[in-house]
Amino acid sequence: MKKLKTYLMRYWYLYLFSMVCMVSAIALDMITPQITRHIIDDVIVGGQAELLMRFLFGLLGIGVGRAILQYAKEFTWDCVGVTIGNDMRKDLFRHVQTLSMDFFDRHNTGELMTRVKEDVDKVWAVLGFIGGLAIEALIHTIFVLTCMFRLNPWLTLVPLTVLPVIGFLAIHMERKLGNVYDAISEETAELNTVAQECISGVRTVKAFAREGYEIEKFSRHNRKFYELNMGQARLLANHQPLISFLGKMMLLAVVIIGGLQVIAKRMSLGDLGAFLEYANNVIWPMEILGWLSNDIASAVASWKKIQKVAKETPQIADAADARPLERIRGEIVFDHVGYERGGQVILQDVSFRIAPGETLGIMGMTGTGKTTIVNLLQRFYDVTSGRILLDGQDIRAIPLIQLRAAMSVVMQEVFLFSDSVSENVKTGRREDTDQEMVRWASDAAGASHFIENLSERYETVIGERGVGLSGGQKQRISIARAIAKQSPVLILDDATSALDMETEKAIQGNLKQINGLTKIIIAHRISAVKNADEILILDDHKVAERGRHEELLAAKGRYYETWCVQCEQQDDTEEEKEVGAWQ
């Protein structure tokens, strides 16, 4: 994420062009009252009617020129603002993508969505149209006061007396609005989070009949959001009418004092007419001071929040001496690996080795650190003790992009994009995966049968997170996605939990046919790991048992106990099927 000055300097020539157009348009505005002065003094009072058409054509020319300059100025301001917003949003999103998993553990989705969308919008508005209008108001005021001073220095004291009062009110309002906008920005993030969670988890909400609770929860945040915005409206209502009133009183004072000077022959009627026009022109910058202060205060608050995200640095990054492996075979070694987080032990002294093409099964109770092994292997987090080797090289010395490209992972929580089945399968290697590979991977994952029955087959668009598919169908597409990536290491993290035993067995058989594929299978069912070359049983965050299926059964430990329980459950299921068949 770049500094604000970098974005401004990148398009300096557009800002310069817009400023030239702006100053030229303001200069034309300053000429108009002078023509009015001559019409009053020379045509109306002086009786020189032959000059009228010349002055009218002059006003017409000024109107046309000002329209062209204003169009060029406003279009350029909008163009540069939108362009900077596009660059800024892209840079921020790219920066967020580089951050490590610990950042996403600390920040919720709604908050990040607010930073990337709404906060960037507020900043680029100030760098575009709003900022241009603020500069125009300042230059316009200076030009007007200069012209007024040249007409009548003493009468210029009237607006100069009023302007500091309006400036004080604007600054006072801006300070209060700054605090309000901080609170509104935070509550916007909370409101987005609540809405996003409820909509994403709508099936869970309905399954547990939580609609009332979620509506009440959303209403609480919505009410707070409403109260904050009402507070903002009250601040504006307390200040804006007063600012407008002072402007009108200034105009009235100019008429009275200027009229007395005309009567006393100290200025001409045309001078008073021009002065009134200038005075009227200085009112609009005063009236929009509160609105500009409002938007600028909001943009400043948003920029601070964007900068807070931009200053985050990835905890996991390529080492200075990182070097890519020439060819990845898939040998994995955990050498006395330990991992702690927040003072809590997650893994302790875990060691194992998987030769290229071998399969490792991992079992254990929930919370014993099975998924953590996957996270450490992909360097979502770094080990706190020991080391992990890939083909003999510490993974911390391998570029992250190569390390993660070498692994295909099917997570516990399946995530599918709102896209076609084909595009979801291609996710890992989109450019190199053709339709034939998509079909082969889907067939290997046992997904081709139900995909062929979808309305548009592989081009069927599935909803967010795979809405419209069963749990087992989503898992099979996720497995197909991992197979299509064709990485040397395949990790299945409880990836067949929603599948029946026959489908699971068929997929395992298909995976076994893929030569040279190193597999790590994390599961709760013994049927998923019993054919592995080695099985680890985790307990109390460390390896409690290890060995092949037959060896662990013979040891009659935790693995054996799990086997007995699952065999009994399987027998009960088969008995239920038989009873159902007789009925």
Distance linking N and C termini: 68 Å
Q: How many β-strand runs? A: 10
Rg from alpha-carbon coordinates: 36 Å
Q: What kind of sheet is the major sheet?
A: 6 strands, mixed
Helix run count: 22
Shape descriptor reads elongated
Mean pLDDT: 81
| Spatial strand sequence of the major β-sheet | 6-7-8-3-9-10
Helical fraction equals 55-70%
Approximate strand percentage: 5-15%
**Alpha-beta classification:** alpha/beta
Low-confidence stretches: 573-583
Show the helix and strand layout.
Blueprint: H1 4-10, H2 12-45, H3 52-98, H4 101-106, H5 109-127, H6 129-151, H7 157-200, H8 202-207, H9 211-263, H10 269-281, H11 283-287, H12 289-310, E1 332-341, E2 344-354, E3 359-364, H13 370-377, E4 385-390, E5 393-394, H14 400-405, E6 407-410, H15 421-425, H16 435-444, H17 448-452, H18 471-485, E7 489-493, H19 501-512, E8 518-522, H20 526-529, E9 534-539, E10 542-547, H21 549-555, H22 558-582
Parallel strand pairs: 3-8, 3-9, 6-7, 7-8
Antiparallel strand pairs: 1-2, 1-4, 4-5, 9-10
Helix pairs in contact: 2-3, 2-6, 2-10, 3-5, 5-7, 5-12, 6-10, 6-12, 7-9, 7-12, 9-10, 16-18
Question: Mind explaining what this structure looks like?
Answer:
Residues 573-583 have low confidence and may be disordered. The protein has 22 helices and ten strands. The strands form two sheets. It has a six-stranded mixed beta sheet with strand order 6-7-8-3-9-10, sandwiched between helices. It has helices spanning 4-10, 12-45, 52-98, 101-106, 109-127, 129-151, 157-200, 202-207, 211-263, 269-281, 283-287, 289-310, 370-377, 400-405, 421-425, 435-444, 448-452, 471-485, 501-512, 526-529, 549-555, 558-582; strands at residues 332-341, 344-354, 359-364, 385-390, 393-394, 407-410, 489-493, 518-522, 534-539, 542-547. The longest helix has 53 residues, at 211-263. It starts with a helix and ends with a helix. Strand 7, helix 19 (501-512) and strand 8 (518-522) form a beta-alpha-beta unit. Helix 5 packs across helix 12 and helix 7 runs antiparallel to helix 9 (211-263). By secondary structure, it is α/β, with parallel strands linked by helices.
